[in-house]
Amino acid sequence: MRKTVFVVLLGAGLLTAAGVLSDAGQEQSTPLGLPQVPIPEDNPQTPEKIALGEKLYNETRFSTTGEVGCFTCHDQKKAFTDTPLKVSEGIEKKTGTRNSPTVINSAYLTTQFWDGRSPDLEDQALQPFINPVEHGLVDYEPILAIVRTDPEYTEAFKEVFGKSGEEITMREVVLAIASFERTVISGDSPFDRYYFGGDEDALTEQQKRGFDLYRNEGRCVSCHIIEQTQAIFTDNRFHNIGVGINGIQGDVPELAPAFLEADLSRSEVDVEVLTDPRTSELGRFAISHSFDDIGSFKTPTLRNVAVTPPYMHDGSIETLKDVLIHYNNGGVTDVGDRVNDFLSGGIRPLDLDEDQIDDLVAFMEALTSPEFEPSADEAGGK
Amino acid sequence: MTKSNLNRRDFLKGAASVAAVSTLPLSTVEFAFADPAQNFTFAYISDAHIQHIKGSQFVYNWDRGLIRAVAETNLLEPRPDFVMFGGDLAQLGSKAELDHGAEILAKLNLKPRMVMGEHDYYLDLGEYWSELFGPQWYSFDHKGVHFLVLNSIITFDEWTYDRWPTAEQRMLEMAALDNPNGSPFMVGEKQRAWLAKDLSGVAHGTPVVVFSHSPIQKIYKGWNFWTDDAEEVQALLRPFDDVTVIYGHVHQIQYNQIGNISFHAVMATAWPWPYPRAYAQAESHMPKITVPMNRADPFFERDATGWQFINLKTGRVDMAYNLYNNTNRTVAYNRKTGRPEDTKYQAEDDRIPPQTQY
After folding, report:
1. I need a labelling partner for B75 at 20 to 30 A (CA). Which of A21, A32, A35, B147 fits?
2. B79 and chain A: CB distance < 8 Å anywhere?
3. Contacts for B37 with CB less than 8 Å, ≥ 6 apart
4. What is the spatial distance between Cα B188 and Cα B205, in angstroms, rounded to a whole number?
5. Which helix (H) or strand (E) segment is A278 a member of?
6. d(Cα B210, Cα B146) in Å, to the nearest integer?
């Protein structure tokens, strides 16, 4: 991979873009537990570009109602998700089919979206604007009209890209948004301080037992990967774990060939999967057309997972405990339900007992970065 | 059930469209016969090894492998003309195992044609299997191709009838690898006579495809990757221009060319075997042109298992392997070199480390 590495401008706990700006120029090390952020050669980070990207990220005029921006579903106050929504709400409260994945550490992912239909953050940022249930635009003209004429934008694009008027295209818009997103990096959780920092007291005894299960009987680590010096908690692969697909098993023989026959472009897939709940459950298959991918979705990170319920690509499981019960049952939420024919070979009944499941949940709770820990008030309100 | 709004929509591709990279084996299907109506494909599932534990319990992993292959085969578009099952439906040949396997196979849209495996046979010498599935060797014609199914896993009468105190022990002895009490597989005189007679009515220009459980070639005796009378069977096939032998049993990708005969192995849905030359201390005769499979990741229990989708557009077999958690492979007959070749990895330089480092 030919990618240069950019030293993250953020220290642990300093996640806001304001932090980026005020720290601009001061190189700080990557948060504990994370590798350096890969920066594409054709989109180097600059403080000005990051600031422009953040402004674009929070812009609401790039939607039909003037109310929806990137932040709507990826809200910093909610660990860059829209928790506790099950699936995301776009314009006019229209809902899609998928639970909002966090922007945090998405810079490390080798594909974007639950089905990986986008190769990078730049490409990802193009899709929601023109999705009928997200920003709802028919095309990019309304965005271009604003960034080419609004003085705040014209000045910024001139400064960042040296471009103005018609020279400004969606390419510049998404380069800036992606640059901002590459600063949304978060590590330094109690787990990181224990495992990478050598602080024995950072985890409770129960969490340590959970960590042992995580690596052994729980079989978690095979997909939610922890390496020797870093942990992004994903293998960047796609797996059928028996979520979503379980509800449409009878329809697969009709849906899958129809999808192959239609041979959609990627933008068309984007619309289909967010507007047709059954097609959505085909998962990665919609992109790869490989039988191996039927009902499979990308392994999400587990960082900050305790503060971003509900879970799974469709938000169908409310608590971490229920997630673990689903895995413990070998890919069915209720014991005795039919296991789907296309289940990943990595998923099998685990035979964990109640205490072990609680230990694993406790370990998940040790993956929250300090900046996303609920404040004392919120915690007290629970 | 609502109708998908995708059906047969005629899309105009915008600038944003990208070519879909199809990893489906059906991407290999092309029209090549003069009369396109004569083109056809078929699916091949093999070596399920359904294993009974007790009561209604069966080994979960082997069940899942067969269930998945059946479900995927049912999704193939264009539809295969028929489905083959290549033997070893059961692990120890019991009624419970054969019944359970037959029940899973019954979910196929098409009734499969069956090949006998040694794990199906040596408990009751194929009696219950034949009750369920019919004759142990037979032939059929389909769109200008002559197909033959052999029971290639029989052995010497003395070993079969006189040596073992119980049928159960006979089954276990034949199921063991590197077993000094084992005995080599063969087609046998009776079946060879039938084969000669069957082939006598077939024009030499007709493509011939043979299905057997063991390889009709000699690779490694200790695991019965072997048929003792392989040469005699090959001799009967020699007069024909295009002959292909497709066999199960070995749970790995193998292919070879001996004279006019192309050989292809199929994957198991149960588990992968290592390559004899990488594992066995004894001499083996793995075909030189075979490019090995990727080494499997054992976490993914389906890795290095799979099933295959076969087309006969040239009168020879193009074998598309559908491999889970792995890279799909296609081994197709190359008219120029006159042998089957992996379409991607055949050249030494094109191989990836897991194919060479076992």
Report:
1. B147
2. no
3. none
4. 26
5. helix A277-280
6. 9
Nearest to B145 by CA among B316, B339, B330, B320: B316
Report residue B356 as tokens: 């060479």
Contacts of B34 (CB under 8 A, 6+ apart): none
Q: Does A351 touch chain B (CB under 8 A)?
A: no
Which residue, B250, B238, B249, B229, is CA-closest to B208? Answer: B238
Give the tens place of pLDDT for each residue, B178-196: 999 999 999 999 999 999 9
Residue B77 near chain A (CB below 8 Å) = yes
A168-197 pLDDT, tens digit per residue, is 999 999 999 999 999 999 999 999 999 999
Instruction: Find where tokens 């922007």 sit.
Output: A103
Min Cα separation B319/chain A (Å): 17
Q: What is the DSSP-derived secondary structure letter of residue B48? A: -
Closest alpha carbon to A70 in A62, A131, A176: A62
Encode pLDDT of B123-181 as tens digits. Answer: 999 999 999 999 999 999 999 999 999 999 999 999 999 999 999 999 999 999 999 99
Backbone dihedral angles phi then psi of residue A236, each to the nearest 5 degrees: 60, 25
Whether the CB of A251 is below 8 Å from some CB of chain B: the reply is: yes
**Model-level ipTM above the cut of 0.95:** no
Q: How far apart are CA B33 and CA B142, in angstroms?
A: 14
Q: Which two tokens stand for residue A288?
A: 């790869």
Name the token pair of A266: 């990627």
Contact (Cβ atoms closer than 8 angstroms) between residue A348 and residue A330: yes
Greater pLDDT, A271 or B349: B349
Residue B5 is nearest to which of A276, A344, A346, comparing CB atoms?
Answer: A276
B231: closest CA of chain A, how far (Å): 39
Amino acid at site A308? T
Q: Which of B93, B42, B89, B94 is nearest to B63 (CA)?
A: B89
How many whole angstroms separate alpha carbon B318 and alpha carbon B315? 9
Which of the four pLDDT bands, split at 50, 70 and 90, describes residue B36? low
Peptide bond connecting A277 to the previous residue in cis, omega within 30 degrees of 0: no
Whose tokens are 């998404």? That residue is A174
